[in-house]
Design goal:
There is one protein chain. About 35% of the residues lie in helices and about 20% in strands. By secondary structure, it is of the alpha+beta class. The chain has a domain of about 375 residues: 3-Layer(aba) Sandwich (Beta-lactamase). The strands form six sheets. Strands 2, 3, 4, 5, 10 and 16 form a six-stranded mixed β-sheet that branches. It has a five-stranded antiparallel β-sheet with strand order 12-11-20-19-18, with helices on both faces. It has a three-stranded antiparallel β-sheet with strand order 1-8-9, with no helix packed on it.
């Protein structure tokens, strides 16, 4: 029995050894005779693998006008192991750089995370075709240095800088976050370039080149059999109208603020004007860093996208949201009248108002922008113990309405950096006033002052929601992505807590404001305009605000104009908003309107100490 077991083990052991030897022999055969991959690795000194960068997607406006495109550019790459002994003085002279810059750059390369002396590293970026041609003639003097072709972004005009954004060199943190990138690559830094980076950037390719003992490129390995072609990035069609954007930027010259226009039926942003702005064409190439530093130090903050980052008191434009809330909650009816003797007066508290007939029902109170009316409405809501057991319950209900209208949280626009604004809640006031507060304590929020802040985008979206009679689609600036679908977020309707019938009442009040109230200069004989002024109190001069839409039925455009320190809403907000609506609806301005536009373009505000 023992002999039989021993013989058995001998055969099993022998078979195992034979099998292992067979596997090794087969693997050795395939590596040496059949595997080109192994040959590439073994002959690495004779080959160089070079990345092929894809063309970044182009960007056009809603009518197909080109906004952003690519132009050829060239990078100088270096393999540190191969460049030993290079005449650095001659190299610097050939590239037009100083010896100090050369030394510093070499040190930076060695400190880059993931650095290898055997692989190509970025030495100098974005040379022009002429600079590249000059260096190409002398490159054989500098072993270890190579030319890498890629593209550089170009912008067709000085418009929509904050919306379009720009492209810059990738940071170590961005490399760590996404393995697609390596040192020296470029990535969208701001605007659309950043938020749609993955769609725009494409997919890298590669090519394998043969080189001689001196490192000179002799051609493609096996005629490019193992090359991988890059896949270009996807083109984007934006929702903005370039001509509308141009007019908005012209009108806002010499002013601080924003103009945002939305197509109500789709949520598409028709223009996003920020003032001051900058020319995106100056934020490309090797000068980007220097230009960015200059803009960052400007006290007027031209890099700030005020449309989505500026937090402002909405002023009287906010009264429309209060009217809707009071109507839906049964605090008022359209025929409810409240007194206004140059303002709201109660228990020693006064909130001023301009002179107008009193008392007024709701529609005329919107048309005349009566402060007293909306102060009384909020006071009665907050003190209604039959409906709300505590003031905190009334406040929570009020806030729920505001949130349903798109306030207090980010709307979710497809741009980076959006701010949420401020809609206070009961907990906020409990903490601020140690639980002892009432409707009089917070009365200023009823007229868009106090703790309430919105972005111009949120104010424009309020106009779009009233235009739609109670719903909105999340605002977005990309209309179409080549061979792809938009996020469903930008296709879904968001309904507020208010019935459409109440929106119709408020829209009528806004129509009356244009026909004979505070927005008279927005009237147009060709279509019905609905508008609401705002004069937002500020530490210095008041801000001039306008929110409106047109035509009243089947509206094509909703708009918000916010001019910092512009005074009354009728001073700047209303006339600028009227010109923008006319441009979009008619496709051009009438001669009289063009003359008015030129007047406002040349009308600059002296900010002095108010510049922020």
């Amino acid at each position: 029995m023992a002999d039989y077991s021993l013989n058995n083990r001998k055969y099993v052991l022998g078979a195992s050894v034979a099998l292992i030897l067979l596997v090794y022999l087969i693997r050795l055969f395939t590596l040496q005779l059949m595997s080109d991959d192994y040959k590439l690795r073994a002959d690495s000194n004779a080959f160089i693998r070079r990345i092929q960068y894809p063309a970044r997607g182009a960007i056009t406006d809603r009518k197909g006008k080109l906004l952003v495109y690519n132009q050829p550019a060239y990078d100088i790459m270096v393999v540190m192991k191969e460049q030993v002994g290079v005449d650095t003085v001659r190299l610097c002279r050939s590239l037009g750089i100083s010896k100090e810059w050369y030394t510093q750059r070499m040190q930076e390369i060695k400190q880059t995370k993931g650095y290898s002396m055997h692989t190509q590293q970025l030495f100098m970026s974005q040379l022009s075709a002429r600079e590249c041609s000059n260096f190409q003639e002398k490159i054989f003097h500098f072993p270890g240095f190579y030319i890498q072709k890629r593209s550089i972004r170009q912008y067709t005009g000085p418009y929509a800088a904050h919306l379009l954004g720009d492209v810059g060199e990738v940071s170590p943190a961005e490399i760590e976050e996404d393995k697609y990138y390596r040192p020296g690559d470029y990535i969208g830094k701001l605007g659309i370039e950043r938020s749609y980076e993955q769609q725009l950037r494409g997919i890298k390719g590669s090519e394998i080149l043969l080189r001689d003992v001196h490192g000179r490129i002799k051609g493609r390995y096996q005629n490019g059999k193992f090359d991988v072609k890059p896949i270009p990035g996807k083109n984007l069609t934006l929702s903005i109208d370039l001509e509308l954007q141009k007019l908005g930027e012209r009108l806002m010259q010499g002013k601080l603020g924003s103009i945002v226009a939305i197509e109500p039926s789709t949520g598409e942003v028709l223009c996003m004007v920020n003032a001051p702005s900058y020319d995106p064409r100056t934020m490309v190439g090797r000068q980007r860093g220097k230009r960015h530093k200059e803009l960052s130090s400007d006290p007027m903050k031209p890099l700030l996208n005020r449309s989505i980052m500026g937090l402002y008191p909405p002023g009287s434009t906010f009264k429309t949201s209060q009217a809707l809330t009071f109507l839906q909650e049964g605090i008022i009816k359209p025929e409810t009248r409240y007194p206004c003797s140059h303002g709201f007066h109660y228990r020693g508290l006064k909130v001023g108002c301009h002179g107008h007939p009193s008392p007024l029902p709701l529609v005329p109170s919107i048309a005349t922008s009566c402060n007293g009316y909306f102060c009384w409405g909020l006071y009665y809501m907050m003190s209604n113990r039959a409906k709300y057991p505590r003031v905190q319950d009334a406040m929570t209900t009020w806030r729920d309405y505001m949130v349903s209208m798109g306030f207090g949280y980010k709307l979710g626009i497809d741009l980076p950096g959006e701010k949420r604004g401020m809609i206070p809640n009961a907990e906020f006031y409990d903490k601020a006033y140690r639980g002892s507060w009432n409707g009089l304590t917070i009365i200023s929020i009823s007229i868009g002052q106090g703790e309430v802040t919105l972005t111009p985008l949120q104010i424009a979206n309020l106009g779009a929601t009233i235009a739609n009679r109670g719903w909105y689609i999340t605002p977005h600036v990309v209309k179409n992505i080549q061979d792809d679908n938009l996020d469903t977020l930008y296709q879904k309707r968001h309904y507020t807590m208010v019935s459409p019938v109440h929106y119709e009442t408020v829209a009528t009040g806004m129509q009356r404001a244009v026909e004979g109230g505070t927005c008279r200069s927005a009237a147009n004989s060709q279509y019905i305009v609905c508008g609401k002024t705002g004069t937002a109190q500020n530490r210095g001069h008041d801000h001039s605000v306008f929110m409106g839409f047109a035509p009243k039925d089947n509206p094509k455009i909703a708009i918000a104009v916010y001019v910092e320190n512009g005074g009354w809403g009728a001073n700047y907000g209303v006339p600028l908003g009227a010109l923008m609506m006319e441009q979009y609806i008619n496709g051009k301005l009438s001669p009289a309107s063009e003359e008015k536009a030129e007047t406002f373009a040349n009308k600059h505000i002296n900010y002095g100490d108010y510049a922020r």
